[in-house]
Design brief:
The chain is of the alpha/beta class. It has a single domain, classed as Rossmann fold (3-Layer(aba) Sandwich). The protein has seven helices and six strands, in the order E-H-E-H-H-E-H-E-H-E-H-E-H. The model has no long low-confidence stretch (mean pLDDT 94).
Length: 194
């Protein structure tokens, strides 16, 4: 599995680390990577075409290694990284995409849907979406995925990063453990089916 980060973050994001640990414990090979703009120390993301090209280059470099040659590939990412994964999945023959907080629309801008990116994947997509996600609640993502292969997992009380409100009984740690468990089971099933 290859995991990309969100627009303002990097590969050390808590959700990416948690999912990586779960997948590795299940015996999968996982690589997290930083986009070139982050490596250069910039916070503002590069244009979509440059993000996609960088991810594509990482996939090609990984496939060139003897360890990964011939293994089924699942792409994933947090927010912007999930968008990149959806956009390149078909061109790299991925068997699945995992979106950790898919930014369906900019906050307060429901008319600017990114639903078409989910369809671009051309393979099953698992979206883990916090119930309080300002980029679109799970129900909106389910509607966007109608007719597409995959699933949406709603994270109770979670925001875009699966963080729970302080007053809620669920903690962020529980949310991350739940997301990790769901993602691990789904990725194992996707890779076993190939």
């Amino acid at each position: 599995m290859l995991l990309g980060h969100g627009a303002g973050g990097d590969s050390s994001a808590v959700s990416l680390v948690a999912v990586t640990e779960g997948l590795v414990a299940a015996g999968l090979v996982v690589t997290r990577f930083d986009q070139p703009y982050r490596v250069a120390g910039r916070r503002a993301p590069a244009p979509a075409a440059q993000l996609d090209e960088a991810a594509y280059d990482v996939v090609e470099a990984l496939r060139a290694t003897a360890v990964l040659a011939g293994l089924p590939l699942v792409l994933g990412g947090k927010s912007s990284g999930a968008r990149v994964a959806c956009r390149i999945a078909s061109s790299v023959s991925a068997v699945g995409v995992v979106a950790l907080g898919f930014p369906l629309r900019p906050p307060g801008r429901p008319e600017r849907s990114r639903a078409e990116e989910l369809a671009l994947a051309g393979c099953p997509v698992l979206v883990c979406q916090g119930e309080r996600d300002v980029f679109g609640p799970p129900r909106a993502v389910e509607q966007a995925m109608r007719g597409l292969a995959g699933a949406v997992h709603a994270v109770a009380g979670g925001d875009h990063s699966f963080v729970a409100r302080r007053a809620e009984a669920r903690t962020t740690v529980q949310n991350l453990a739940e997301v990790t468990e769901v993602v691990t089971a789904w990725v194992v099933a996707q890779t076993a089916a190939t």
